[in-house]
Structures are given as C-alpha cells and as structure tokens.
Amino acid sequence: MDEPLTQEEAHEQRLFSDAIMRTMRQPLIVLNGDLRVVSANRAFYATFEVSEEETEGVPIYALGNNQWDIPELKRLLENILPNDNEVSDYKVEHAFEQIGRRIMLLNASRMERPDRDDLVLLAIEDITEREDLHRELVGQKELAEKIIDASREALLILDADLKVHAANETFYEFFQVEPSETEGQMVYDLGNGQWDIPALRVLLHNVLPNNNTFNDYEVDHEFKDIGRKTMILNARRVDHLQLILLAIEDQTEARRAAAALRESEEKFRVLVESTSNATWETDPEGRSQGSASWSNFTGQAPEDVRGEGWLEAIHPDDRNRTLREWQQCISRGDRFSMEYRLWSAEHGWRWSKCDASPIHDEDGRIVKWVGMNADISARKEAEEQRELLLGELNHRVKNIFAIIRSLAARSNGHRSSEDFQKAFLGRLDALTSAHSLALESDWRQVDLRRLVEQTMRPYLDGSSESVEVDGPALDLPARPALSLSLVLHELATNALKHGALSVPDGKVRVSWTISETGNIAHFTWRESGGPSASPPQRHGFGTKLVDRVFEYELGGECAVEYRSDGLHLDASFSLG
Amino acid sequence: MIDSVNRRTLRVLVVEDEYLIALEMEALLEELGCEVIGPAPSVKKALALLDLERPGFAILDVNLGNERSTPVAQALVEMNVPYVVATGYEAKHLPETVLRDAPRLRKPLTIHQLRRVLADPERG
Fold it and tell me: Is the interface score ipTM higher than 0.95?
C-alpha cells in the first residue's frame, strides 16, 4: 500500500503531470466519469484545430460540432475501458470535418480516484501519415513486383551475396528453368553451372561494386540447354535493399535477323552492282535526287542529274519517248522498263536498259522510286547482227535461187537432155563448192588457191600433172569468188572438150601474182600442148561469163586470146 | 509511155551488181524481144550509160555493193524514163522516194513479171 501523499507532495505531483501533459508531443486528453473533457494538452488543440474554451467541460462526443461522435471511440470508452482499465494501440479511423481523414492509435488508461469519479487519460497518436506511407510502400512493392513480372526482359534479383532472390516469368520461360531450382541458388550455379559465364563474373565482381550500375553489356554465351544466345545485360545495385537487379535482354534473334538482313542487302548490292552501270532513286514525283553511280557512268555532275537533269544524258532521239513513258509510269504508279541510248563518259553512246519500280509505304502510298540501268549494247549489237544476217541470208537464198534458175535456163540449148543435165550439174557443183568455201569464213572471203583447186578437182582425176596451180595467198570477196568459180568451171569444161585437157599431153597452168604495190592482182589461165584454140561460134552464157565477170564483179579487166598453142586468159583486178 | 515492142525494139537499162543475176535478166529481156543496155554493176557505170543514150525503160537493183541506186533513179526521173525497182528483203523501208514510190518487182524476176511490167510499166 502506498503511503498517502502529503498536500505538498500531491501539489508537486500535480505540477509534474501537468508539465508532462503540456510538453508531450502526442495529443492527450483527460476525461471525467461522464466523459466530459477535463483538460487537454497543447498537442491536442494543435492537432485537432480546436481551442481550450470550446473543449473543456464539453462531452467528448460533442467536441467540434459532434465530430468526435465516433462509434469506435464510443465502443472503447463505454464497452472496453470499463472492463480493462488499460487499452493500448486501439486503432480508430475517422473522417473529421475540419482536418479530414485521420487514423489514430488510442492508448487509454482509467484512473480510479477514491471518493471521486474515475478519470480517463486518452493518448491519441496520429498515425495517418505513417499509415499512408505504409500503404504507399505496399503499393509500390506490388507495383514493382508486377512490373518485374510483366517485363518482357528476363529479370534476376540477386542478394548481395549473388544468390537469386527472385526471377520473373520471362526469365523462367526463356532459360527453361523452374523457380524451385532457381531461387536461393548462387547465380553461377544456375542450370548446372551454365550461368558460370566469365564475363558475368567480371561484371558482378568488378564492375558493379564500383559503379553500382552497368549498362548494355553484350554477352555471347553457349547454353547447354537453349543453345547460343546473345544477351544484353543491364544491372542496378539497389543499395537500400542490398539487392542487385539484373536485366537480361535476348538479342539472339535480333542479331541473327540483322546479320541476315545485312547479308541479304549485301547480296542484292553485289547483284545489282555486277549487272548495272547505275542505280538511282527519285522522289514520288519522279524527280531525281542525284546518283553517284549515274554521275560516274555518264560523267554528269551530281547537281546536273537532279530533277529531270538526267534526261540530258539520254540520246536526243530517245529523250522525248523516255520522258513520256517515265511520266506515264509515275502517274500510274507502274513499273518502268525501257531501252534507250545513254551517254557513257568512257565509251560514248551505249544502249541501256532502264528498270524502275515504286516503293510503297504501309498505306500503299509511293514514297520513292528506285531504278537501275544496265548496259545492253552487246545484246543490241547481237540483235542488229542477227537482223543483218537474217536479211543477208534471205537475200542470198533468193539470189542463189535466181542464179540456179539462170544456170538452168542458160544451160539449155544443148542437143540432148543428157548434155543439158551434165552442163547444168557441172555449173551447179562449181557454184556449190565455192559456196561452201565462202560459208567457211562466214561469207567474208575465199582463198583463191583453195577456190581454184576445189573447182578444178573434177578435172584433176588421174591426171593431176596436167593442171598446175601457182600463186600467193589471196583473199577474194565471197560474191566475186562464186562467179569466178563458174568462170573456172567454164574454162575447164571447155579445155576438156576442145582444149588442152582433151589430149593426154596437154597442160593448164592457173597462176596469179600480186603487184609490188599490193593492190592489183594479175590472174592468168594458160593452156598448152593441146589443139589450136579458136573463138566460139556464138556468144553463149559461158563466153559472156568468162569475158565480163572480172570487169563486172571485181572492177577489173580481162582479155581472152585464142592461140595456136591453146587458150590464154589474162585478167587483172584491184584488191581491197 | 513505152514505145511499142512491136514497132521498135525497146532498149532497157539493167542496173544490177551481181553478174549472174544481170545475165539472167539480160537473157529474159532478150527473150521478150528487148535489147539490154549494160548491164551496169554500179551507179557510176549506169550514169555513164545514161550519158550515152536515153533508154526506153530501166530495171534497178536497190543495193549495188556499198551504194544505193538512188542517183540512177533520180537521173531516170529527170530523163522521164519509166523504171521499176527490183527488190529483195533490203527494200522494205526505203528512205528515198524515187526508190520507194517506184513500181516494184520482187526478186527473183520471172519472165511473166517482166512481160507484165513491160506491158504496163506504171503498175509494177
């Protein structure tokens, strides 16, 4: 039992408790038995924005226009406290009219007084801000966790000792591991040591402790289970939490795609460059933006190519149709393809095939045109050559028929059809063999010696000594060679019938020389050892042919002498 | 107008650079009772022959080696001599009107073609 206090002691006690009440930063309120306010401290007045006058003596529930009529408070004071005397950390949440929503922790103590009613000491702790902070913290934590989980980057949260604190879904999916075999594991031990990546060790041990972050560190690593991966690592040291956040971005596909794209671009670039002289681009309206390769090919200055300046490099005869076609393609959005002559700084006019296509954006609008020029001069020349050859062939076929017709008609007048056949076929054979010789050189020239030998061959059989051929190499144009073969044939036939070849000892010498100046050829046919020659009675086809072919087709002249020792022919013609 | 073949022998200038063809034309024309002037293988030779006489008619090959018979055709026009152009493939697109607008004979020539053209030289 306590000793009863002296008056003095009681006063001192009273002063002491008043001082405590006044200096407490926590709102305190003292209520009497019927729950009216006996007193309150300064912290109470300040916190709840009320004055001493409107507080003391007022029932607690009526404080501040009945704002304190709080059901929870009523329960504490009227139900709990009468039984317990002491109540701690009783949480009350209430929206005050003046100061808004408050969360309070109430500590209440009932003081029993002998002979007088009890006093209730109510300490009010305003934990509104603390609670708000807490809620915000909880919210932030949830947000962070959701962000981590929703992230499409694999995230690892490591303890300070590099054990896995947590990982997100992306991580588990990407590396095909389970949370159970991941959390709490040393990072290097993950997946049977697959994560023991030297570069990662360097980063976590050397870089991160000094810098507290590392950014965009690329690591290439061969994982046993998922193969080779290219990863971009980003790390943050969260010092307050003693955690390390490691973000792993998988770049494998992107790198592969980029490499594939580069390769594909390179492939097309090489293809285009190997088949084209120039590549270029224009705006959607077809105006050139200049092109280095075009300038390089045409010699046009880059600024001269711009707009429609490129037209200047196109042959004047092709310019209008090119521009017309180009404008039509631009307005229709069609592919452009045409052939025109393009000036080459190096080779002059060249045939060029130009191809261009529009490039569309996602909405189908033309954003630009790209085009290239390829040199097709060789093809054009080949086409022209073919055209020429075809025409030439056509011409030759017609001529040859005309000639055969002529031979047939002129071989007439023989007594019997047998003679006719012999004469006609002989001429035809001579023509045929000369034709073969001409074809050997693509109808360009015929070697005179081969022509003579081949035409004379039918008359050399068994008596090759009777014909002598002598002369230097000499090329005749193809057409005169054909006619000359007929002349040789006529002379040989005549010699066989009436001349040197009609007797065993007769001889024919065919020879030619070229003048010292090199531009005149002399051709001779000399018969000897045979019967005396005499001029023909009528001027038939053969005679006309022999007389005039040198003049007609070689621009030369020819003289035939019918001498007692045989026929002599002397011809001369210019070469080249 | 050509003088009638019956009344007087028609003299025909033949310009053709290929001798065998020229010989055949000569033979055909002779068969039809004409006399041939030439044949001439070149423009130069043909013009030289025209200096000597005015033919009653002319048959021109288009290509004579490396030249065309255009100057001969012009001379014939000036001399008011009717002529036909004997064409092969090469005469499809003739730039010179004196050749392009003249009556044409397709090669190889036949005696029927020649007979027809001599009867009515304007038609070709």
Answer: no
